[in-house]
Amino acid sequence: NNLMAAQMTNAHRRFLQVLMSNGITEGSEARKLHQHCCETDKVYYAHDKLDDFISTINSHLQPLFMQIRKGISEEDGRAHYAVVNLAETEVTKMASDYTEIELELFRKTMDLIILSENGFASSTDILNLADQLKTKKMKKKEAEQVLKVFVEDKWLSEKNGEYTLHTRCIIEMEQYILSNYQDVARKCNLCHSLAIQSQVCESCGIGMHLPCVRKYFRGQTEPRCPKCNEFWSCDTP
């Protein structure tokens, strides 16, 4: 296997270190970082070789049960990269950073978001959960602070008092979500990544990310489902 034989250079190591310290890196930043690392280390650089560069790193991370994964932002469809620990579940991944009560609030928030129609949960609904936690009750003020930390740490995103899962969370926890929410979690029919904010076909039930819907139906006069060919009844963005 040529990839396994490819040497891990200082450029690869530097790229990996920055990715790990960022938590998540937007695609254009990853491309700039790729160029910077190659030029600093004086190794071959080609702008269209980022995926190969990452594959080399991943072949060396494999024995450590780690991987650089690519995911898309559900909001604008832009690519992001994150380092994922494949040996850990969602709970152990976050357990070193948060207390048991904070994790319980996160899991309940996750429930609300994933079980919702549109992939969002309002701050009111989340804060109402704070005094129903099994670990111990949490005051609303305290819960507000914890939510703020989850946003800062890029596990949640917030817009006008509505919370959803951050791209980092979706990349890192895709497997956990798919296996723990089997009845409701779905992959996007177009890009095959986990879709939290999505539109769903009323006829056959497939889902698509909003940026994927936008891309797929662009220029079509009558939007039809890519799977069952029935009329797509959602308002296309």
Description:
With 237 residues, the protein is of the alpha+beta class. It has 3 domains: 10-86, Aspartate Aminotransferase, domain 1 (Alpha-Beta Complex), CATH 3.90.1150.220; 91-179, Arc Repressor Mutant, subunit A; 185-236, 2-Layer Sandwich (Herpes Virus-1), CATH 3.30.40. 45% of the residues lie in helices and 15% in strands. It is built from 10 helices and 10 strands. The strands form 4 sheets. It has a 3-stranded antiparallel beta sheet. A 3-stranded antiparallel beta sheet has the order 4-6-5. Strand 2 (66-72) and strand 3 (79-85) form a beta hairpin.
Record keyword descriptors for this entry:
3 domains; 10 helices; 3-stranded antiparallel β-sheet; about 240 residues; Arc Repressor Mutant, subunit A; Aspartate Aminotransferase, domain 1; alpha+beta; Herpes Virus-1
Topology:
Layout: H1 2-5, H2 10-22, E1 25-26, H3 27-40, H4 50-61, E2 66-72, E3 79-85, H5 90-95, H6 100-115, E4 121-122, H7 123-129, H8 140-152, E5 156-159, E6 162-165, H9 167-180, E7 186-187, E8 194-195, E9 198-200, E10 207-209, H10 210-217
Task: Tell me the helix content.
Answer: 40-55%
CATH architecture assignment of the largest domain: Orthogonal Bundle
Segments where pLDDT lies below 50 for 5+ residues?
none
**Strand order within the widest sheet?**
1-3-2
What is the radius of gyration computed over CA atoms, rounded to a whole number of angstroms?
20 Å
- Per CATH, what is the topology of the largest domain? Arc Repressor Mutant, subunit A
First-last Cα distance: 44 Å
Give the amount of beta strand, in percent.
15-25%
- CATH class bucket of the largest domain: Mainly Alpha
> How many domains, as an integer?
3
Q: How would you sum up the global shape?
A: globular
Query: How many H/I helical runs?
Result: 10
Mean pLDDT: 90
CATH superfamily of the largest domain: Winged helix-like DNA-binding domain superfamily/Winged helix DNA-binding domain
The topology string of helices and strands comes to: HHEHHEEHHEHHEEHEEEEH
How can the largest sheet be summarized?
Answer: 3 strands, antiparallel
